[in-house]
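Quick entry, no commentary yet.
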Amino acid sequence: MKYNLFFLRFSFIISAILMLAMAISSYNRLKQLIDNANLVDHTHIVLLTSEELLSTVKDVETGQRGYLLTHRENFLEPFHSGIKNVGIVLGNLGNLTADNLHSRPRFALIKDLTYRKIYLMRENIRQDSTGKISPQTRLGNLIRSKATMDSLRIVVKDFQNDENSLLQKRLQEKGASEEATPFYLLILTLFTLLLLSVSFVLINKELLRRVAFQAELEQQVEALNRSNAELEQFAYVASHDLQEPLRKIRAFSDRLVYKHKENLNEDGRSILDKISVSAGRMQNLIDDLLMFSRLVNKKSEMVEVNLNELLNNILGDLSEMIKSTKAEITIDSLPIINGYSFQLQQLFQNLLSNSLKFIKPDQVPQIKISYHKVSGNEIDGVMSSMIDASFHKFEITDNGIGFEKEYAEKIFVIFQRLHGRHEYGGTGIGLAICKRVVSNHLGYIFADSKLNEGTTFIVYLPVESA
């Protein structure tokens, strides 16, 4: 499952990166196409503006010629308005060629020749208006003005030739972009469809796997429900069918002890004592099994539990055991939590009973219960959905006999014992009950121990109950 999820995520990330790269490349391609079209339009405008300049200068020259021929003032109006237009057109042409280093020197020459031409035409009009100009001077002025106009035409022509060359180059680039863009977009579309198809196949495969897993999980839940029903049936049988004959065995053995113990020899009394002890152990085993079965089938509602009060009650229940062992117990201030009150009592009572039971001879038991809050990422094996959750952490530490680390998980298995029942009493169910209680609260329990150095039981319970 983890491999499939990793592969699906990896494929999605690669697909997303490729799609992003293709989107950026497509944007650049379209931008280049638009830029080439804009450059072509720009060159056309430069050519039109250069033609407009020559036309405007000719208009000014026409106004000058009309005045020189007729000496009428109304011919000066198009002359002066034409000069203003020349300034505007030159300004436009200068702005259009400002970013072209190759065209700027030619534009400077065009500008110089244009203003020189205007200067000569102004001089012709000024001198002619005095009436003192000789025919030779007038002819000379006209020849200089014509030469300047011819030079202006040549320079503008060269300027236009350069712009036409640039136009052809830009048209070729534009054509190449226009030809390549549809092919490129087709490749992009096909590749996108391929990625979508691969993603669909992977997602569909993962969905089918999850559906199959869900069906398998439902079967396991059904099997677990059947197992729980069988366990409930066992609890019923244990509480009625098994306990009734057990009570009779204990009653008859007690009657034998009371009425006939003096008539039995030593061997008979020993057998009778063993019957009583075995019957008592059987009763304890049945009681613990019933307790465990009730924990498996929890149906009560969670309530607020004051752990300080709960621990005080437990210490009262264990007071005889604490007194006989002279145990020293220290407990941190504990929180109020949401949980199953009776189950939490079983949890802490069994853990304290363990610490009071597995003690070293001739050593005062020292037990400490400490508490603080932690984050889920500090817990080994925590579910991914609980990593950011907050947990109550309880540590029950003692200085008892301890055990080897290899048994740290085995001790929570039902009926698992590390010592013979003659050394230490018990049914081997207590820590299994603790494990079940913690599981019912969606928590975690661990044991950390060293042989002959003591044991620490670590309990994590979520702050926010499910």
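second:
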Amino acid sequence: MAQRLQVVLGRLVLSWTFLLPSFWQGKAGPAPSPVQTQTQKPLPAGPPAPQSTHYPILLLGFGNQPNWSVRIGLKGPERFDREGYPPIPLEPADVTHEPSGQGWTYHAKDSATGALVAVHLSREACTDATNDTLTTTSPLGGKYSFKISIDHAQIGSLKGCGRIATELFPKINNRPEQQDDDDAKKKPPVPVSSVSKFQSPISIAYLDASQQIVFKRGSIVRTVPGGSGSDLSASHDGKRLLFVRQGGAVRTINEYDYDSHSVKELLRGDVRSPRWSPDDSRIAYLNQQGGKWQIWAFPSSDSTKAAVLSSDSFESIQDWADPHTLLGTTPNQVALAWIAEDGRATQTLPIKDLCEPDFACGGMLTARLHPTNPDLVLVSAAFLRPPTGTPAVENGQAGALFFYEFHSKRRSVLTLPNLSATDGEWSRDGFQILFTGTDSAKRRTTYRVFWDGIGLQKYAPGTSLVVGL
């Protein structure tokens, strides 16, 4: 009985061994013939999945010592900021994506000078910056999410860190109802200045329409007694004003005191261009001796102690670089010269390097150093090729204002639509430019604009304005 059972079970196993493959083949259809197998072609491969060439989040790159930052928007780098300099608008170009998927190189152009800019971003922990320049708070864990470097063809290379910074960019509103608002579409966006904190001048002086000297402190306006004058220079404490008056062949340097509303003569002779030192302790001026305009100086409290500082010849005194150094121009506006206490030039810059090939720095030249950054100067000159709409009303020339950086030699014009600009001056906070603007109808008044070229407005009803406090 046991032997019979074994034989039956063995036959069943053999039957299922042969029947199961045939059963499943029938369910799946007939097997292909050898000929069909040889002629069957593989299906064509589909296109590769698209890969983004940049990191699709709004980012802020930054570094310290010196402080700098670069904003990277959806199209690429948009603005490059450095402490003590006006912001640089950037024109985004192409983006290169590294094969690793963890790095991007953004290419751009300096909108003002055309210099090439490259920003490299990599997704890795970064400790190259202690803060993001907008706040002194350090990142959680002491590390940022990205490493970043920026290379500017004129300024050089800077390294730092990066973080996601969507709060710095305009909000994107995708509400459908706004797409139908034709009026909103036609309105161009209103430019917003990068200057968020500034201090308007408290004390200023200027010439009114009748060429009388006006001294304004706060809301109180006073006319300096005694007639007209020129070569205005306000003290940094905002209480005194130097100016020159001429009677026949004789000039006098005078001091107006705001509190007492009185004028005092300091010097008489062939003198001009008085300038307060940064701490108001000294006054420098030009004194013609032996046919040369020499630089002289005296303590502001005692003009009888006036003495020669440099016996060389100068065209003008432009500014004080620091309490011990004057910035002047050599005869015929050949060069800017930094004059030390011993009367020697410690540094010179040819005027042609400062101005050419875009500007003519002749009789309209003024050069004002930034209040806190000696590498940056505001220059008033004349356009050689004026932009469309700029009136040529300054003896047939169109006045221009531009910034110049001594170290990088970067020059950028301050765009002032439909105005000829002269006599540019810094506010004491260094964020505002005040200048005499003339329109096509030859109407002259003082304007104010932020150093990024935004916020242009009329400021005072006069010309040749200087800032005290």
